Structures are given as C-alpha cells and as structure tokens.
C-alpha cells in the first residue's frame, strides 16, 4: 500500500513523515517536499475556481517510475501526502481516498488532544500506529 | 558525498514508462544517435519561425568587448524586422543568432527547416594584409562548413575604410553613401532579388554579394573552395583596383561579401534620426537577402507536384530506408505528408502563419493515415508553433474574445489554447517512440513548458518538464548540468521554488559527481547556494529564527552538509567553518545527539586549520555575504545574572536617604517616578539592576552553562560583551563535562517530535561559573551578551538572541567612581563556620573571654587600593539590646578615629576595641537545693536576716555553667577618592563571635547587719567555675583565694542604701513601692560592691552583681532607716552595739526619741515596743509576762511625724528574772487607703542583759 505518509502543516513545514523503508527517508523527504509545489498550485487553482464545498482530495500530484504521490488538503490547510509504489497497479483511486479520509480522522483525534500543541510535530502513538497499519496494508 | 539520487527520477507521469520502453525498442534501432546530442534548452516555440544565422568572431585582433557590442547591435537590427513581399504584404522576419552551430545539426534541417543554418556573419578586425588574408580564409572555410544550407554570408571587417584601405585614424572616412549601391536603399527590391535568386548556378550572377548557395548545392562549396575566380565585379564596393599604397588586397579566393568599417563606432554611429546606422542597414540588407532566398524556395516548393516529391528523411531514417519499397502506397503517402509538412515549415519561417497552419493541418491528416509518427509529431509541433504565432503572446494568456483582429479564415486551422497543449502532448508522445528523436523530444518538452507557462498552466508546464528527465539522452555531464539548470529556471518562473531548488542542487552536485572528469567545486557551491531559498533556508541566523524560514529540517541539514563539503573542497575553509557553525546553530533542535556530535567534531577539525570569527564573510566570486553565525547552543547558557559586589565592597550612599519613619502604610498604587521608570525599562527589554558596581573593582556575572554534547566542551576566552562605559572583560576558560549517557538519546530519525522529547529527558551536564571584568570608568554599563570560543569558533552571543533566558535583552548597571579598598584584619582567629547573617562580613574574629573580663581587640585597616581613604566611621552593629550592646562594646566614639585619617596608599592603621565578657554571675539554681535568695524571699517579714545562719552548709553545687556565645559586628564605613566626591562609601563588616566563659559565680547571697547602722554585709557564696585558682578581691585590702571548682563565702561590707535614694519612694503611696525599692537597692548593691577576680595566668575581671534578687528581709537591712532613733535608758543614751546590763527587779526608764529624716512628714505613725528572748535556734519567745513588765504604753500612735518635731515616748521596764532580753522597737506607718504599711525597726536590736538582783 502506501510507502510513505506525510503530514505537512499550514506553513508547509513537516509535522509528521513516516516511511516504510527508513533508508529511503531522505528520498521521500525530497519527493514530498517537491510535491508541495504542486499542492500549492492546485490549492490556488481550487481557491479561484469556485466557492462551493471544496474537494479535499487533490488527486495525483506526481508520478515517477517508482512512486505515485497523492495529496489531500484539509480546510485548515493541513496537507496529507501519501506515496505509493507505481508498481502497485491494483490500488484504486477510491482506496487512496479512503486512506486519506482515515488519516484525516486520526489527525483530528490528535488535534483534539488538549495536550497537543498544533505547532508541534505529531508524536502520537495512536497516529503512528494507524500510519504503520496503512503502510502495511492492513486497512 | 551524499546521495544525489534522491528524487532524481521523480518526474514523468505524462507517459507510461513501461509503454515508452516497449515502443522505443520496437520502433527504432537501439543504436543511439550520436550526431546530434546537444539539445538547445532555451528554445521557445517562436524558434520555428526564425531564420538561423551564425554570428562568429574571427581573427585574433578583435576584442571581445567590441564583438559583444557589435553582436548586440546586430541583435537590435534584426529585431522586429518586417519586409514587404511581392504582393505588398508585410511579413515579419525573425532571425535567430547563434554563436556556435554544429554542422551535424543541419542534418535535421529537412525534418524541421528552422534547424538549417541560413546565414553566416563573421566579425573581424584587420591590422595587416596577412591578417586580412587569414580572415578571408577563415570566413571561406566557415562557408564551406555550412555550405549545404547556407543562403548568404557577410564578413564584417573593422579597421578598413570604405575602399578597403587600412584605416588608423578613426576620425575620417566613413563609408561614403554614394559609393555603395545598396546604401541608397537598405533593402533589396523584390525584382532585384528575384533576379539574383533565379540563378541557381553560383558566381554567374553580377550580384556576387548575394552568396549563391542552395541547400543542395554541395558542388558550389567545392567550387568556392577550389576555383580562384576573379572577384570584384564592376560595382563591388571593395575596390582593389583603386588601392592606394596602404590599401590591402583581398585574397583572390575570397568570394563573400565584406563590409568595411573604420571601427566599431563608425559601424554603430547614427548619422541622423531618419537613417539607421551603417551596420543596421547592412544587416537588414543581409536579412532581406536571406528572406528572399527563403521565399523563393517556399514558392518553388509550393509549386511542386505533391506526388513528385522525394521522401524527406530524418537523419537516422536514412539507413532504414534501404530495401524499402519507395513506390509503395504507404511510402507515397508518407512522402506527400512529409513534403506538405516541409512546405508548412518554410511558410511559417517566411512569416505566413495562417498559411502554415493550413499546411500543417493538411500534413497531419496525411501523416496520420501513413502512421508516420515521428513526422506527425513534428507536424503537430509545427501547428502549435503556427497557432502560437497567430495568437500572439496576448492570445495565449487571454480568452478567445480578445482575438478580434484575426478573421475566422485565419483562425480556421489555428488551435485553441487548450488544444495547443493537447497537441503538443501528442507530439511529444510521438517523438518519445523514437530513441533517436530524443533531442527533438527534449527540446519539444522545453518549448511546450514555456508555452504552458505563457498560458499560465503551471501544472501542464510542470508535467512537460518532468518528462524531460525520462528522456534517455546520452549527454555529457556538462550538458546534463545545463539541462538541470534550464529545468530549474523554468520551475523558478513557474514559482515552483521547491523543485527549482531541487534541480539547482542536482545541477550543483553533477558538477562534482563521480562521472564528471573535471569536477568544479566552486560551481557546485554556487548552485547549492542558489538552492537555499527553495528550502526556506537563509544563511542569516537572524532570519532563521523567524517563522518564515520554517522548512524541512532533514533537507536543510543535508543541503548545509553539502555546502560544507563543497566549500571545503573549494579550499574555502573559512566558509566551511561558517556553514558548519550555522548548521549547528540553526539546525540544533532538529538534529539528533549523534548528528550534533558529528557536526561539532567536524567543526572542530575544520576550525583547527582556520578559526571562525564572528564577522560577515564575503564570498570572492559572487559577493555573497555570509553573516556571522554564533553558537548559542554550545554551551547553552541557562542562567545569566549579573551579581552585586560582595558585601564588603558594595558601595553605599554616604547620606542615607530619609527613612520613612511614619506609620507603615501600604498602597498598591505606585506614585513614585522611580517605580515608573523601572517599569518602562523592563518594557524596553532592558533590566536596570538595583545595585551598583564600582570602577576598578572586579565585577561578575553568574552564568550557568550547559553542555548538550556527549563530548567534553572546552570554552576558551569566555568574555562579557558590553557597551556604555569602558569595561575590561577578563577572559576565562571553562571545561564542561560531556553529557552523560549519550546512548540513552536514541533518536527516532523519522520524527522531529521524538527528537525533542528525548533530548529533554536527558540530564544536561551543567556548570556554574562566572564571567568577570573590571569597569574602567564610571557611568552606565550595559551588558549585552557574551562571547565564547568553542570548537575553534569565536561566537558573539547577544542576550537578545537568547530567547530562553529572559525577556530582557540587556542588563543595565550603574558604575560609580572608584573608591579605595581597605583590608581589615584583627588579632583574633577567624571564625570557622560562619553563620548566615554574617556571611557578608569582610572579616571575622572569634574571641574567648571570661565573664567579667574585658579584652582588647586590635583592628588593623590596610589600604590596599591606589587612593587615600579620607573618610572612616566605625559602628557596632548587633542584634543585642542597646543596653547590652553598650555593656559589651562600651560606648563607641568615632572621634578618636579621625586622627587616623587619611589612610594613605599602602599604609595601615590600627585601633582597638574593648570587649567585655557579659554574662550573668548568678548561678542557675541547682534542682535539689533551694536557693538562698528564694528561701529568703519566701520567709515572713519578721523572719530576720538570721535565717542565713540556719544553714551553714554550702549549697549543693549547681550545674557547671556553659559558655555563652555572643555575636556582633562592627560596621566600618570608609571612602575616598572620586567615589567619596560622588557621595559613595563602602561598608565593611567585622563580625565578632564572643564566647563568654564562666568565671566566678555567685550561688547564694544574703545580707547581714553590720556593726554600725550605716553599713551592712553582703554575704556571698562564690563558686569558682574555672578550673584554676582565682583570687577574689572583695573589699579594699581584702581578698581570698578560691580554688578551681570550689566555693567560698565572702562578706562584702557595703554602705546602706542611702535615704536620698529611697525618700521619694516613701512619699508615694503606690502599690509598687516595694518593687521599686527592691530595684533601687539592687542597683545600690551592685554599684557599690567592687568585686574583682584574677586568675593565676594574670587574667582578671570583675564580678558584677547586676540584677541581684533581694528579698524583703534583705531590703530591711539594706535600706537606711528614714527615722533617727535615739534610745536612752534612765537618761543615758544607749548605744545599740553593746549590751545594756542591768539588774532584775529594778525599773528602767526607757525613752525613745524619733526624728523623721525625710523631707516630708509621716502620718499615722505607730510606735511599738516589744520584748522577746531569742533562743538562738530560730524561735523567739514573746510571751514574757512573767519575766518582764512594761509600765506605760507599749504601743502608741504618734500621729504626724515631721522633721522639725521629733516624737518622744517613754515607758518603764521591769525585768523580774535575769536573762538576756531583746527589745524590738519598731515604727509602723499605716498606708492611707491601702493596707500596706511601712515599717522601720531600731537596728541593731538593743539587748538587755539582766543580772541577778542584789
């Protein structure tokens, strides 16, 4: 399923990055970081387009030989990015959406924690657990 | 180096990679096209409309600046050029000037005609014939090189005048306009041109200036090279025939047209507004010549029958064609399609986009049917180019509504905005099927991206750019770098800063990659620096603190590491040190403990070669300024507090401000202006400290340093940074122990969150230290920070940057002028454990005295400063009551000290202090024995002094007395020098601890009447509490030796308490008379008893009886009687000391005369006489009726008794039996209201010794 999951704050600084293969960590940092350009572009395009309820799912941001990068933006401009392997062709768009929705709800749980400072990186165990599951494909 | 692969392949998405590979393998040979492997990354779609011209400097004497100027001018001349065609239509002509062009690139000219090199312009400078010859040769050889495609050429020659004469003076001889046939009209007329261009055979025309090269005329090239045909047709402006002696001859094989200019100024000088400069007109003429050849070829092509057209081929297709049936239907279709496409290319170049788009559309239709993907792609690209040309830059950005100036016919084949991108995408897809068309594809991607950018379709543009990286191109490293830079630039204009930065970095790393044979670290460094903003990194530490620069720490750290490595390899160690410092400073919170340690060690190694200093660094190549970075985390200062001077050095105002004496009132409102200014200070981020520092004194700031590294940290040269008055900071060197248990800091590398939390859990190794310094002038001193030298880097850390410390950015301290300093020493040993309240004392002394002893302490004041002490005052300062204080220290006078002043530099003065060992001399009562005093107090009034005789035994020994410790101090205030003038002084405290050892103590006491009525004896039981023999002198000439720990009983003769002291009390009628009397008597006793003791070792002291408790019976003895008694028996006065002897049975006439000694009369005085027998065993017998009889009143009320009127009473006594009788005569005064009475007795009691009668 996912090989990397990232949560990026509204100031575009990372709040949480986790990936399946720790050796590839820096790679994924670059990938997700670069994908932010597209996220911003899509957000500004969306913002201009219409005033109706915004679609939070941004769709495919980028795809390479190895990976596909999907994006999702909450209404508070928190960005979720999920990287999947390009080889995994069985993954449907709907499944990616599901992952994002799940991620969003777990994130909401994290933010509801009164001891969590929203400007800090996420260090919640429950959140970590969900992300791990997501990456292991146990959704 | 670090991984450069990161994200390298991140792109694509446009075309399935797997599909691409399959198709490429299928459609083209795996062999790579080596002939044309350098794409031009800077093309736009407009390139399809341009005529390609090579502009090249030749010859050695041409300055590059001159060439640049001329090239600039040429560029201007060809810009926006419009020519009228034969039908009078205006045609825009675009010229693309290049400096280099590989002939192999011409090979693709059939595929896309704008790739053909059509014109050649050379620029040269001539100073000699030989040079001219060389230039001509080079020009000719260039012509040959591009002969397959060249239409025309010009050779611009500087240094010759119009006639081809060598020109050295620039002031003369511009080319005369008359001499040139073209100067009258810079453009060729169409007629002219058709005349010249009709001839496909070279050199036959009289227009030798129009170089007659056709695309397929390779033979021409040969002929120009080989045949030395005679030049200079009749109106050739180069006139060799007219050569004057300095004229140079044109080599015979030079067939190009040369344009002579005296110098560059002459070439670009504008003669008048209406006329362009020489160069301009020449260039325009040249361009028009190119145009007309092109137009000719276009017309030629358009007239050809489509069926007859030979198959045009891309270079790599040539070898595939062998064995193919050229006459097959599909091939026919191909050749028609390709021919149409070629025509469309020419049409577009000739400035007819509308026609071109129609041709392209037609070509697309044909090529689609022929499955000729490569050419179809090219046709799509051409159509896009034509559409873009039609729409113009405005049309791309605006909606269709703005295109009103174009008719529907013109737009018939034109693509809409959306279609342009779509078609281009198709074109690229088609290209991608051919491995050999990789260059085409790459260029197409860049062009498409630029178009998309113009249309503001950023995502489209981005996807085009991503595709570039998927194209398999066999490029040299240099070209790869160029490609990355071009991509970065485009991303930059797309405002995709992150990607731009990523590619900048990639390009930079390519400069030094393993494959690169000549690595260029400087270039790498430059590009890495350019990548900084995209990662939200600024090299200014101040900016990094702000929220704006909040990026991705992991990436930032890597980039900084790369910068460090690049600068090291560049040889700029200083820069590397700066970057490492910055890395440690800015990325500290994001680094793991191990990373911190590594970076710190790296920094230490780098800085060992060259020290880092906190000054901005200017990079030599770019002028980029690296602001200083300071290591505020190494060590981390967690506490920074300036401390006041030690107590004995602290300055004070000599004039102490008025102390509020009124009742204590509290108000929450602050009225004082002082308070307000204090608050204002703290608002400004400054803290005004409420203590003073003294010029010339060592002052310090207490700091707590934390080492957060698992290595030992050596802080060298730690100093304070100040401004305001002069401050001399003294450097200190500190060594901080390493952080314990570094392995507990396991940093989960994927989350910054766990990093911070785990670091917080580690206990830091903390060092408390001080930074010291000496203020060198009085005034206001601001402490703004500190500087350290850690790991070889000097850092200036300002308090304003240390957000964790306190809100105040600086401390402000008032420094008062210099003052002298005294060292205080005493003859006493110093205190060992100093109690808290005298901790601040300058010096201390411990003194052991016996109770009652007076010890002299000599205090020495040494002036150890460099100025005189001109003011000195000493004052005892204790917690004792003032009475006690006076007793211990005596009454203190400052006057005698003044003679000691001034204390000069280096001198010392002495004064002495007398200390009295004050203690109670009365032993605490032992538990098992009644104190004499207490029994006396409880005994009844008429129980007389004899009670003391009741026990002759000494009382049981009381518990040994313990030493008493008294504490006190002397406050020594002194001043001098400028500090004194400013009204300040120092106050040093001399703390004293006085241990009072017990000496002699009084265990019991009593009084005995003396032989005379004016005296009495104070009988004391004295216990020697020392272990030595003591001699007690208790009266004049009377002394006794008391062994250690032994008792002795001494009678101290004392006068009675005189009436004067008591008389007043008698007058009072109050109840407390007795108590008052008691205290008066006690005082009388203690003042008069002069008891002195001396020990065997010569120590001596007093035994004072202050506070002696006296019982009522004792008081009776002590008090002097206010009445004067005269007792006479049988007419003779009786002295009471002796017995009166008489015989039994004989009456005795007793007369008592009383005189009041008091100044006031006494009322209600009763006189009574009673006789008793004392059995000497404590019982007195008053019942003597059988033994004695009194004739007359034994009790009589005397009434008023005044001084003037003595009272008399007489009676007769008859003793019946012999014996010893005592007569108790007493006088009572009944109190007025109360029942209290005053009573006086005749003392000593008269005794009658009655003998047996005769």
TrEMBL record, chain A:
Its main location: cytoplasm. GO terms for cellular component: perinuclear region of cytoplasm. CDD domains: TRAPPC2L. GO terms for biological process: endoplasmic reticulum to Golgi vesicle-mediated transport. Keywords: ER-Golgi transport, Transport. It comes from the Eukaryota. It is found in: Cytoplasm, Perinuclear region. Pfam families: Sedlin_N. Belongs to the TRAPP small subunits family. Sedlin subfamily. This is Trafficking protein particle complex subunit 2-like protein. It comes from Cloeon dipterum. The lineage of its organism: Eukaryota, Metazoa, Ecdysozoa, Arthropoda, Hexapoda.
From TrEMBL, chain B:
Residues 1136-1224 form the Trs120/TRAPPC9 fourth Ig-like domain. Residues 652-739 form the Trs120/TRAPPC9 first Ig-like domain. Residues 211-222 have a biased composition (Polar residues). Residues 179-208 have a biased composition (Low complexity). Residues 53-388 form the Trs120/TRAPPC9 N-terminal domain. Residues 171-234 are annotated as: Disordered. This is Uncharacterized protein. GO terms for cellular component: trans-Golgi network.
């Amino acid at each position: 399923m996912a090989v990397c999951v990232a949560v990026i704050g509204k100031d575009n600084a990372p709040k949480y990055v986790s990936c399946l293969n720790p050796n590839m960590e820096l790679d994924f940092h670059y990938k997700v970081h670069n994908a932010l350009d597209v996220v911003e572009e899509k957000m500004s395009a969306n913002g201009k387009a219409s005033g109706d309820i915004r679609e939070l799912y941004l769709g495919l941001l980028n795809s390479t030989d190895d990976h596909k990068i999907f994006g999702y933006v909450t209404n508070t401009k928190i960005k979720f990015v999920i990287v999947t392997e390009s080889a995994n062709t069985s993954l449907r768009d709907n499944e990616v959406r599901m992952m994002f929705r799940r991620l969003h709800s777990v994130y909401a749980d994290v933010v509801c924690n009164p001891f969590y400072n929203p400007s800090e990186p996420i260090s919640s165990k429950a959140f970590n657990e969900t992300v791990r599951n997501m990456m292991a494909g146990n959704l | 180096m670090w991984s450069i692969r990161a994200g390298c392949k991140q792109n694509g998405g446009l075309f399935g990679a797997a599909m691409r590979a399959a198709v490429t393998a299928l459609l083209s040979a795996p062999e790579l096209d080596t002939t044309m492997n350098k794409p031009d990354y800077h093309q736009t779609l407009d390139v399809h409309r341009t005529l390609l011209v090579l502009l090249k400097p030749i010859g050695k004497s041409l300055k590059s600046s001159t060439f640049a100027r001329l090239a600039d001018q040429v560029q201007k001349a060809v810009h926006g050029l419009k020519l009228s065609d034969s039908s009078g239509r205006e045609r825009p002509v675009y010229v693309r000037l290049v400096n280099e062009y590989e002939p192999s690139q011409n090979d693709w000219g059939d595929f896309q005609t704008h790739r053909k090199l059509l014109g050649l312009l050379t620029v040269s400078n001539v100073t000699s014939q030989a040079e001219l010859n060389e230039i001509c040769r080079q020009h000719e050889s260039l012509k040959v090189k591009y002969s397959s495609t060249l239409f025309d050429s010009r050779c611009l020659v500087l240094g010759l005048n119009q006639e081809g004469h060598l020109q050295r003076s620039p002031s003369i001889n511009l080319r005369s306009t008359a001499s040139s046939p073209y100067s009258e009209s810079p453009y060729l007329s169409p007629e002219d041109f058709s005349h010249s261009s009709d001839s496909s055979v070279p050199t036959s025309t009289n227009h030798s200036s129009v170089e007659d090269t056709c695309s397929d005329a390779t033979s021409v090239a040969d002929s120009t090279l080989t045949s030395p045909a005679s030049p200079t047709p009749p109106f050739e402006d180069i006139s060799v025939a007219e050569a004057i002696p300095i004229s140079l001859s044109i080599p015979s094989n030079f067939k190009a047209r040369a344009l002579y200019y005296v110098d560059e100024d002459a070439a670009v000088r504008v003669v008048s507004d209406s006329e362009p400069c020489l160069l301009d007109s020449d260039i325009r003429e040249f361009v028009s010549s190119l145009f007309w050849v092109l137009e000719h070829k276009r017309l030629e092509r358009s007239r050809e029958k489509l069926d007859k057209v030979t198959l045009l081929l891309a270079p790599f297709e040539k070898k595939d064609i062998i064995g193919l049936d050229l006459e097959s239907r599909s091939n026919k279709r191909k050749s028609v399609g390709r021919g149409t496409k070629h025509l469309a290319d020419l049409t577009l170049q000739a400035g007819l986009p509308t026609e071109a788009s129609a041709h392209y559309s037609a070509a697309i239709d044909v090529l689609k049917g022929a499955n000729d993907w490569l050419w179809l792609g090219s046709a799509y690209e051409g159509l896009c180019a034509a559409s873009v040309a039609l729409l113009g830059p405005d049309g791309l950005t605006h909606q269709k509504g703005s295109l009103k100036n174009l008719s529907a016919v013109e737009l018939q084949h034109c693509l809409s905005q959306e279609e342009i991108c779509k078609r281009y995408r198709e074109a690229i897809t088609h290209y991608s099927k051919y491995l050999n068309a990789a260059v085409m594809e790459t260029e197409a991607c860049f062009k498409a991206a630029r178009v998309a950018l113009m249309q503001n379709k950023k995502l489209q543009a981005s996807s085009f750019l991503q595709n570039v990286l998927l194209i398999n191109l066999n490029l040299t490293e240099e070209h790869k770098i160029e490609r990355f830079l071009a991509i970065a630039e485009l991303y930059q204009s797309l405002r995709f800063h992150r990607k731009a930065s990523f590619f900048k970095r990639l390009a930079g790393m390519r400069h030094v990659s393993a494959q690169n044979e000549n690595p260029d670290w400087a270039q790498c460094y430059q590009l890495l620096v350019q990548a900084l903003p995209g990662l939200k990194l600024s090299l200014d530490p101040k900016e990094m603190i702000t929220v704006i620069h909040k990026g991705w720490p992991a990436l930032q750290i890597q980039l900084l590491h790369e910068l460090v490595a690049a600068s090291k390899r560049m040889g700029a160690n200083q820069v590397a040190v700066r970057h490492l410092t910055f890395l440690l400073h800015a990325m500290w919170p994001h680094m793991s403990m191990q990373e911190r340690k590594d970076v710190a060690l790296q920094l230490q190694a780098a800085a060992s070669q060259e020290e880092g200093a906190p000054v901005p660094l200017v990079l030599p190549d770019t002028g980029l300024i690296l602001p200083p970075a300071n290591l505020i985390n190494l060590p981390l200062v967690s506490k920074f507090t300036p401390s006041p001077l030690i107590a004995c050095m602290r300055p004070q105002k000599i004039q102490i401000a008025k102390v509020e004496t009124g009742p204590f009132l509290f108000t929450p409102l602050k009225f004082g202006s002082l308070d307000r200014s204090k608050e204002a200070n703290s608002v400004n981020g400054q803290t005004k400290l409420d203590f003073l520092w003294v010029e010339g004194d060592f002052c310090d700031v207490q700091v707590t340093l934390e080492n957060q590294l698992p290595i030992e940290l050596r802080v060298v040269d730690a100093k304070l940074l100040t401004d305001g008055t002069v401050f001399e900071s003294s450097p200190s060197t500190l060594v901080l122990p390493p952080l314990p248990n570094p392995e507990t800091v396991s940093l989960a590398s994927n989350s910054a969150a766990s990093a911070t939390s785990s670091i917080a859990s580690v206990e830091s190794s903390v060092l408390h230290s001080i930074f010291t310094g000496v203020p060198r002038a009085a005034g206001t001193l601001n402490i703004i920070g500190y500087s350290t030298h850690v790991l070889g880097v000097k850092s200036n850390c300002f308090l304003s940057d240390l957000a964790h410390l306190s809100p105040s950015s600086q401390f402000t301290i008032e420094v008062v002028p210099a003052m002298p300093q005294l060292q205080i020493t005493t003859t006493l040993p110093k205190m060992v454990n100093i109690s808290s309240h005298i901790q601040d004392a300058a010096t201390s002394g411990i003194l052991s005295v016996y109770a009652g002893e007076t010890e002299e302490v000599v205090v020495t004041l040494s002036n150890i400063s460099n100025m005189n002490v001109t003011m000195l005052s000493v004052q005892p300062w204790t917690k004792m009551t003032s009475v006690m204080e006076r007793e211990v220290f005596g009454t203190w006078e400052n006057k005698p000290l003044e003679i000691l002043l001034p204390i000069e530099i280096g001198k010392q003065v002495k004064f002495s202090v007398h200390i009295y060992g004050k203690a109670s001399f009365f032993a605490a009562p032992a538990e098992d024995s009644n104190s004499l005093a207490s029994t006396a107090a409880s005994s009844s009034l008429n129980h007389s002094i004899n009670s003391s005789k009741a026990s002759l035994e000494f009382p049981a020994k009381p518990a040994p007395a313990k030493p008493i410790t008294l504490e006190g101090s002397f406050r020594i205030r002194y001043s001098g020098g400028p500090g004194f003038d400013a009204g300040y002084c120092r106050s040093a405290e001399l703390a004293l601890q006085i241990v009072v050892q017990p000496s002699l103590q009084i265990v019991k006491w009593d009084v005995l009447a003396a032989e005379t009525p004016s005296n009495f004896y104070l009988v004391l039981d004295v216990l020697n509490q020392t272990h030595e023999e003591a001699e007690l002198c208790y009266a004049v000439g009377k002394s006794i030796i008391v062994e250690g720990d032994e008792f002795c009983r001494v009678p101290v003769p004392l006068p009675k308490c005189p009436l004067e002291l008591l008389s007043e009390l008698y007058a009072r009628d109050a109840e407390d008379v007795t108590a008052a009397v008691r205290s008066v008597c006690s005082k009388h006793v203690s003042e008069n008893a002069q008891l002195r003791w001396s020990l065997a070792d010569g120590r001596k002291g007093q035994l004072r009886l202050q506070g002696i408790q006296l019982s009522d019976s004792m008081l009776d003895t002590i008090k002097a009687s206010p009445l004067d008694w005269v007792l006479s028996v049988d007419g003779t006065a009786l002295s009471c000391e002796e017995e009166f002897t008489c015989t039994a049975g004989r009456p005795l006439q007793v007369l008592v005369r009383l005189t009041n000694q008091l100044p006031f009369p006494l009322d209600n005085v009763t006189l009574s006489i009673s006789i008793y027998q004392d059995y000497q065993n404590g019982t007195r017998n008053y019942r003597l009726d059988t033994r004695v009889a009194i004739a007359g009143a034994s009790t009589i009320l005397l009434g008023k008794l005044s001084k003037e009127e003595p009272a008399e009473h007489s009676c007769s006594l008859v003793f019946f039996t012999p014996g010893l009788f005592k007569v108790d005569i007493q006088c009572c005064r009944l109190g007025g209201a109360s029942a209290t009475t005053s009573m006086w007795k005749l003392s000593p009691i008269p005794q009658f010794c009655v003998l047996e009668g005769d």
